[in-house]
Amino acid sequence: MKILVCLSNVPDTTTKIKFSEGSSSIDTTGIQWVINPWDELSLTRALELKDDPANGIKSVTVAHVGPVSSEPTIRKALAIGADDAVRINAESPDAYYVAAQLAEVIKKEQFDIILCGIESSDYNGSMVGGMISEFLEIPSISAVSGIKIESGNPVITREIDGGKEIVTVPVPFVAIVQKGISKEPRIAAMRGIMLARTKPVKVFEPVTVEPLTQIVVFEKPAPRSACRYVDAENPAQLIDLLQNEAKVI
Amino acid sequence: MSVLVYTENWDGKFKKISFELVSYASEVAKMLNTTVTALSIGKIDETELKKLGNYGSQKIISVFNDLVETLDNQVYTNIISEVSIREKASVIIISNNNTGKALAPRLSVRLKAGVGSCVSKLPLNINPFTVYKKTYSGNAFAHLVIKSDVRIITLAQNSFNLIETENNAVIEKADVTVNSSFVKTKVTDVKKQTGKILLTDADIVVSGGRGMKSPDNWTHLVELAEALGAATACSRPVSDEGWRPHEEHTGQTGKIIAPNLYIAVGISGATQHLAGVSGSKYIVAINSDKDAPIFEAAQYGIVGDALKVLPKLVSAVKEMKK
């Protein structure tokens, strides 16, 4: 079986978000770009599955939609352990556009398990994985917190309200993964970093797709009112404020 | 033209979020000068369905057959898209919960409809159709124009108040043919906790961090949660250490919640944690470090040792409930 992990690169979570003039885009100066946390966990899980020969995973490929400046993200994924990579040479105007590009690549290259993170920490869209599956008319399982292979068949844990379901589905399918899929992201070792330089990265030009949405302006959240302190010796006052001022209890 | 709202049910019952969605849909329908149709999929009785009318749904469509008992994203997408075409929906509204996140993207491709996800306000404009959505894990909000003729909105939980209206809803049982070869998802086992308040449903959440010092100290935190009718949560280090189950982890890579009241006990408030709770209406911080970033996000704070403050809070709540 072949696994594809879709990667998005996002500003490091601790980045202070600033906007460009007119606030129609973010100011990218000084931003530290990282692999989207959920995609990094998906990649880790894919590599863990490949580590056990009994699982019969032939290869782990990563795919990313981005201009040449996003190559460091791809090299990082290769250094962590992916076998090869695909980059679609385009900016990503919206989720629909990105999913359409990835679906095109999947049609060409044929994968059995396609892993996507539940959301990117920048646009918080939670859309790309589901959209890919619909473009390809294949099953999608979302809220996936576990995936293993049993006698050649993928067995998936899906989170539901207040619990979990164990689900099976025939390949090919898209799994949209979240918390639990893997514990700690795998880190690139020196040997991996050396190897990554020579691993193949295929570059495809994008197909023509009209984006369906456009961000016109960003704004900062309304500032929260300053914290009101209650004496640690008298917590009853807090309960009184919550009951009579905030009216939430 | 109409506004279609998909109202999920849980074992034949709606929840507050179902009514939030219908209230929101009615206000969107008013902006577009049209009416609301609610769609329910699965086994549910008429009394329950009728409740959607209290929040402004004029028509309630109920679809039930053997094939919808398991959530198969392809099957559900088929039903919703077919009903939306029948109803000539120009806006489709779904919750931004797990189900909404599973279905909205598939519907988007099927109907060539742009999605505004994690929307927390009424549309800012109807021409061009502009929604207000969360980005950068709550550190910024975007005005997003949806250019397609059909638009999909996934509504952030607890972001819209219930609005009751006169109920004149008509219930319609609809048949939607589902090709059984479509059903590919097989559920082989289910594990469900019962009797506990679900974190994602809770109006009040009491959450503990490393400042709790040891898993043994959770007794008072649980007691406070019980006294308030709250769910319990924790920060990432706590779930990583195995002090609490990972289902309780709230934060960027854990559960993202938006209760009315979030009480953070011994949680410093790193950006990653705040990303999961910044949608809360009120945040209370209890921490011994007066410089902890959680106090910047909080409206009420107590600087003090969590383990000493908690028992006093429990008695104060019990006193209040008397």
Task: Provide structural commentary.
The complex is a heterodimer of chains A (249) and B (322). With 249 residues, chain A is an alpha/beta fold. Chain A has helices at residues 37-51, 71-80, 95-109, 128-136, 190-196, 236-244; strands at 2-7, 9-11, 33-35, 59-65, 84-88, 113-117, 140-150, 153-160, 163-168, 173-177, 201-204, 213-219, 228-229. Chain A contains six helices and 13 strands. In chain A, strand 8 (153-160) and strand 9 (163-168) form a beta hairpin. The mean pLDDT of chain A is 93. Chain B folds into two domains: 2-182, HUPs (Rossmann fold, 3-Layer(aba) Sandwich); 204-321, TPP-binding domain (Rossmann fold), CATH 3.40.50. Chain B has helices at residues 16-32, 46-50, 73-86, 98-111, 218-228, 236-240, 271-277, 294-297, 306-321, and strands at residues 2-6, 36-41, 59-63, 89-95, 114-119, 125-126, 129-135, 140-146, 151-155, 170-173, 186-192, 204-208, 231-234, 261-265, 282-287, 300-303. A seven-stranded parallel β-sheet of chain B has the order 5-9-4-1-2-3-10, sandwiched between helices. In chain B, helix 3 (73-86) crosses helix 4 and helix 5 (218-228) runs parallel beside helix 9. The longest helix of chain B is centred in the N-terminal third of the chain and has 17 residues, at 16-32. The termini of chain B are far apart.
